[in-house]
Amino acid sequence: MKNFYVTTPIYYVNDAPHIGHSYTTVLADVLSRFHKIIGCQTFFLTGTDEHGQKVQRAAASRGVSPQAHVDEYNLRFRNLWEKMDIQYDYFIRTTDEDHKNFVRECLQKLFDKGEIYSKEYEGWYSVGEERFFSEDELDENKCDPISHRPVEWLKEKNYFFKMSKYQQQLIDYIQNNPDWIVPDFRRNEILGFLRQPLNDLCISRPKARLSWGIPLPFDEEYVTYVWFDALINYVSAVRNKTYPDGSKIWPATYHLIGKDILTTHSVYWPTMLMALDVERPKHIVAHGWWLVNNDKMSKTTGNVVNPMEYMEKYGVDAFRYFLAREMVVGQDGSFSHEAFVRRINSDLANDLGNVLNRVHRLVLTNFEGKLPNPTTLGEAENELIETANRVRENVLVWIPQVKLSQVIEEIMSLVRAINRYLEIKAPWKLAKNPEARDELATVLYVSAEAVRLSLCFLSPVIPSKAVEGLAMLGSKFTDESDLRWGVLIGGETFGEGKPLFPRIEIEKKPVEAPKPKQNKPLTKEDVPAAMDLRVAQIVKVENHPDADSLYVLKVDAGEAEVRTICSGLKSSYSAEELQDKLIILFANLKPTPLRGIISYGMLLAGDLSEEKCVLVAPPENSKPGDRATFKGIEPTQEERELKRKDFEKIELIAKGENVFVGEIPLEVNGKPVSCAVPDGAGIH
């Protein structure tokens, strides 16, 4: 049985938990859950860093003891992890007696080996970073180069660890183990840092200046430097623990950190472990920062994201999903409320939630709530099964590589494939034909099984909602054996259903939008560049209250709010056929009132006959908000509201079931936009 030990950094208790802390911990939690599924013995460590000068000063300013201060602030993290459904195995505090004792043992061992010495030292000291900086390391304002806060000149005797002694050994180790630091550009960053001579590490602070810390075993007048103390925790936490089969837990499989603490964990820590004759962790994974509206989070600017607020308003699993999906490990991620709403609405409400509700409703309506047995599998069914098998293979390969965002995107590709399969098979039409009942049974079984697999794959990310969704299908997830096709059995009774992820509606005060600046009238040649054409998804279909031939559609065009579109599609499409369908939206057409309801845009469709039309379809893998452009024509940057008479200056037609203006094709992401009508048919 394979072992998997994952650690987060221990979080400094003077910080209120924010999105950065949440991301690292969710990443560790998801990795731990995935590895449990595939049969590994797992151990997941997190905790808090509770010593140091910042804690001492903060406690003094509040008039409480440092211990009382950290006891209170420690709960912030514990409570948040409980709220986020984080299933850690051990929560370490650097004030734990076992940890303090182990740190002292390590210090004594290094002192006895001659790896620690004392000397008089003077330099610029940063309270915020709790370390010394040389004159050359200070920023242009003579502040510390990390937090850019003022520094203090200190001269004092201290104890030093012979870190420089291990510089070449560390370089050799990194070069001989190219996947030790992930991603590779962070590895290169550390190798670049090590091209300069490595100084010895000051590992003490005099008690006269700092009393809140672990006393040195060989000199009680000094306490341990907070970083030496903190970095030992990943070993101290498991030194007396084993996996269920009795094997030792250390070394860590993956040590997860933010890029801001890469040097301490990739230089200070491994040299300490080398000196202690302790094995290094197998991998150090350095992720990026969370930016807020593309700006760095800062208390000063007031843009720190409070995870608790988002979870209380939108749900725990939605917040977990956004964190796991939105950031590619190693790169910076950007948080905005608009991005959060788009991601949740698009992936969870529109794609996953709708396909589950569709299948659930059709089984309840047509088979009395019992899953039918499939009959003959055709080409479309086998294609969907092949997609599910491909997803399984890729997920099992990519998870150990910490490609979490890619894993989730791969799972969602299966969800989108189910939606495409349903569009092709149109079970709502099959249900009207008694002779097609066997085919309907096959379609619903295959769709339900694919949805089940999708929920199983996503369960480490959205654990509570996955359980709810599986219960709707009369199923549950137990272990890796469920990650295969054909687990659902015909005759199973479906459970009660409700939307897993209701769409997030943006509450916005009505304001009169400024009218777009109108320049000179558009020429025929200007129109293609001035048209804002984009992919949109129909998320709701209703009958127009005052027009029998019209639908009122709610469409998601990748904006913060859905749009209302009135469209005369009743003679061509049923409401079921339109639900969740991807379309091309003419987004900057002047809003038009139609029987009392304002239509904000127009759907593009091709003429099939005088009464029937066919919607223009974006290429596969298109997403709401993707721009549709005419090949070789750069869209104008000017925001402009077009009138119908502008649109009538050009002629959109179908050629080879693709859409053209003249000889120029309409494309999304370099792929042609299609419309299944005869050549020469008009597109309107």
Textual characterization of the structure:
There is one protein chain. By secondary structure, the protein is an alpha+beta fold. It folds into 3 domains: 3-287, Rossmann fold; 336-482, Isoleucyl-tRNA Synthetase, Domain 1; 527-683, Nucleic acid-binding proteins (OB fold (Dihydrolipoamide Acetyltransferase, E2P), Beta Barrel), CATH 2.40.50.140. Helix content is 36%, strand content 20%. The protein is elongated, with a radius of gyration of 30 Å. Residues 509-516 have low confidence and may be disordered.
How would you concisely characterize the structure shown here?
This protein is of the alpha+beta class. The strands form seven sheets. Strands 18, 19, 20, 21, 24, 27, 28, 29, 30, 31 and 32 form an eleven-stranded antiparallel beta sheet that branches.
Tell how many strands the DSSP assignment holds: 32
Strand composition percent: 15-25%
Shape: elongated
Give me the number of helical elements.
20
- Which CATH architecture of the largest domain would you pick? 3-Layer(aba) Sandwich
CATH superfamily of the largest domain: HUPs
Radius of gyration equals: 30 Å
Enter the CATH topology name of the largest domain: Rossmann fold
List the uncertain runs.
Answer: 509-516
Mean pLDDT: 89
Structural class: alpha+beta
The largest sheet is: 11 strands, antiparallel
Total discrete domains = 3
The termini sit apart by: 62 Å
Helix content: 25-40%
